[in-house]
Amino acid sequence: MSVLAQDPTGLSSPVGRLVILFGLLTSLVVLLRWWWYNRRR
User: Fold this and answer.
1) Is the pTM of this model over 0.70?
2) If 0-12 CB within 10 Å is exposed, 13-18 middle and 19+ buried, where does residue 40 land?
């Protein structure tokens, strides 16, 4: 229980890190697609 007390959000667990990594990659892909689409105009 001491681990949960130090990290109430659970973001330092492997699953939390995967969720954060997936979110960052998704936002990067969306930004690149938006930039590429607007660059062609």
Assistant:
1) no
2) exposed
Tokens at residue 33, please?
């697609």
28 in Cβ contact with 22 (< 8 Å): no
Taken in order 17, 19, 22, 24, the sign of the CA dihedral is negative
CA atoms within 13 A of residue 6's CA, in its CB half-sphere? 5
C-alpha pair distances (Å), 9 with each of 1, 39, 40: 13, 39, 42
| Predicted pLDDT at 15 | 84
